[in-house]
Amino acid sequence: MLKETLCKTWRLLFLRFTWMCKNPPSTTAGRSRIKISIIGAGPGGLAAAGYFACLGYSVTVYDKQPLPGGMMVFAIPKVRIRDETVLEGVYELRDKFGVVFKNNIKIFGDHEPPKEEGEHFVKEIVNLKDIVDESDAVLITTGTWQSRKLRIPGEEGSGVMSAVEYLYDIRVWEKGLVDHKPSVGRKVVIIGAGLSAVDAALEALEQGVEEVMIAYRRTKKQAPAGVYEINKLARRGVKWIELVSPVEIIRENGRVKAIRLQKMRLGEPDESGRPRPIPIPGSEYDLEADTIIEAIGEIPTPPVANGYLGIKLDRRNKIIVDEKFRTGNPKVWAAGDVVTGPSFIGNAIKTALYASKSIHTYLSSKIL
């Protein structure tokens, strides 16, 4: 997410995760005795569950949310994807193909798990080692449930939240899981120009916020979400503010009053290949706001500390895998955003299916 989004085609499709088959296999060649555990019930995890179910494996999916679907159900705005279409596919996996879903469970290994977003409904914490020991193969698809922070004065306190937090709070309220609707006031400033920012802006519009603004340190041409998405928001009334970077959140009696922005100019390309934003001294100004939504990226959230059970992480907290999506533990694979970093739903599904094929090849050799 929250680069999580959908291509236009996906918006029209019923999300059927068992696209390899219409019915459970009549013969399983002994696979029904083999247990595969999937950690994370987002798009990658569900696609993998469908793949394994069509082959006749015994599949259990663990997730910390009260419902499967990941950010498709708990973050992405309904104008992009209706969670009902996701859950129809989930119920088919459960009721027709026998996939077991264990919700409200957080899996982690080695020590006390770090705090992540979207953990309101966790009822149990299970050690990853227990899952690995009781499974023939494990696939990790836990995604990116931790948002980056601005790290500027005034950030801590009410009135400042991440895009994931904002979208999640709306979704759980809509589902009746909490009784209070999130309130962001009349004026919202969103920092960032990726798909997280776009989704937060869309949701703010849907919730009737009077003035929605997006502030970005580069220009529309460099926006990660793309010029098309930004122009679409502008046509709906979102104010686009470019070449600015936040330096301080201004508070009055503890409440957000404004955000102080500094104007930028573009310099030579940085390591990303985009022009580097350079601050213009003395150009700071204050923009009035009731709520600041930070949408500057998400961090992978693997269910393990670096090195535990032989599973290694890189400096960006992504799980390190080989070309077949296998980790340093011979029984554990990983795929989706927890491997690649924030990406699209289609990419999460693609990598999960590659990993699933690798697992199937490994398990087939064991059966033989």
Description:
The chain is an alpha/beta fold and 368 residues long. It has two domains: 35-145 and 298-365, FAD/NAD(P)-binding domain (3-Layer(bba) Sandwich), CATH 3.50.50.60; 149-294, FAD/NAD(P)-binding domain, CATH 3.50.50.60. 26% of the residues lie in helices and 24% in strands. The protein is built from nine helices and 18 strands. The chain has helices spanning 43-55, 71-74, 83-95, 128-134, 163-174, 195-206, 227-235, 337-340, 345-367; strands at residues 35-39, 58-62, 100-102, 105-108, 124-127, 137-140, 146-147, 160-162, 187-191, 211-216, 239-242, 244-252, 255-269, 275-279, 285-288, 291-294, 298-299, 332-334. It has a five-stranded parallel beta sheet with strand order 3-2-1-6-18, sandwiched between helices. A five-stranded parallel beta sheet has the order 8-16-9-10-11. Strand 12 and strand 13 form a beta hairpin. Helix 1 runs parallel beside helix 9. It is elongated. Residues 1-13 have low confidence and may be disordered. This is FAD-dependent pyridine nucleotide-disulfide oxidoreductase.
Strand order of the largest sheet: 3-2-1-6-18
Largest sheet: 5 strands, parallel
Order of helices and strands: EHEHHEEEHEEEHEHEHEEEEEEEEHH
Query: What would CATH call the homologous superfamily of the largest domain?
Result: FAD/NAD(P)-binding domain
Quaternary structure annotation = single chain
| CATH fold-level assignment of the largest domain | FAD/NAD(P)-binding domain
Name of the top-level CATH class of the largest domain: Alpha Beta
Instruction: Report the mean per-residue pLDDT as an integer.
Output: 93
Question: How many domain units?
Answer: 2
Strand content: 15-25%
Global outline: elongated
Ends: how far apart? 40 Å
Helix content: 25-40%
Poorly predicted runs: 1-13
Proper CATH architecture of the largest domain = 3-Layer(bba) Sandwich
Structural class: alpha/beta
Number of strands: 18
Number of helices: 9
Cα gyration radius (Å) = 21 Å
